[in-house]
Amino acid sequence: MNTFRMSQLFRRRLLRLRKRRQRLAFRFRPKEDPRNNAARTLDLLVLAAVFWLGTLVFLAQFWPPGLALPVSLAVAAAGGITAGRFQKKREQLRRQRCRLWLAGQRCREEIKKLTTREEVAIFTSLLLAGLTQFTELRVNQGGKGKAPSIVRAAALCARYKGVSVAVQCLSPASPEQEEVKLLEAFGQFLEQQEMRSALIVAPGTLSPGARRVIAGLRKKYRVVTLNEEKLVELALQAGRQPEPESGREGAGGKEAAAGFKQILGQKKGISYLLAAGVLWLIQAISSPTGFRGGIYLALIAVNLVLALICYVVNRPDDDFDLEDLEPETAK
Prior knowledge:
Elements: H1 2-23, H2 37-60, H3 65-112, H4 117-129, E1 134-139, E2 141-142, E3 149-150, E4 156-160, E5 163-169, H5 176-193, E6 197-201, H6 208-218, E7 222-226, H7 228-237, H8 255-264, H9 266-286, H10 290-313
Parallel strand pairs: 5-6, 6-7
Antiparallel strand pairs: 1-4, 2-3, 4-5
């Protein structure tokens, strides 16, 4: 029974990681392809011609030319068709990721415009209303007049897959003392209402005091925090993609960051790791000694260090999933 439960947990974990990887595609800007359609087609034809010549030379070593020529043409044609379909699919995927990245940039710009707690609460309510998992959403308003304020104890209440959830919203410009008071009042609200699941929306950077209060709340309740990146992720899931402003493409001022990601990106980490493996294999086969052996060891070490740096730089800040709001028996 324990083995079956462990396998179920492992499968659920793999599924969550796969879904999270697909959702986080908006964080990475796809690499631009400077070639036009004609240039890509020409490159594909040249590659097919080189592949055909190589296949013809290889088959001619074993078969007569009359048989090697048609077989090599058939193999090259099949390879060219397969490569063309792969190239078309890859271009479609790149364009899709580019649109997703641009939508993420626009959502991020919209979130940065939120300055007050009331604005954060309104944005969060519209966001959660667009997610089918949330029902019975209501804004907790207090006071009287034409513009009632959001109560301090909890900004929103909802149900996530049948589980009651309280939502607290923090302003990006709130001082540490104000954040601590809001979170302490939020904890009292959870205890009074006997609610076990909570969302804390904080578009800005949490202060050390707020982090300590949240750590204390996690000992008693199921708490999920939503920072700016996670809000963008949920906004894209909810289909909340604002239209681009005129004259803006969402990519200004990103050249330095793009260059940094080209050196220490997630895919580069895999390349460094593969390079270290190839160098180790060459060293194991040739068994160089002296100065040459030292060069191989140094290159292997450098590639392993770069791969480790890429992993650390691209590691998510923390595991985030709304399913953490559900009790263990409901999963």
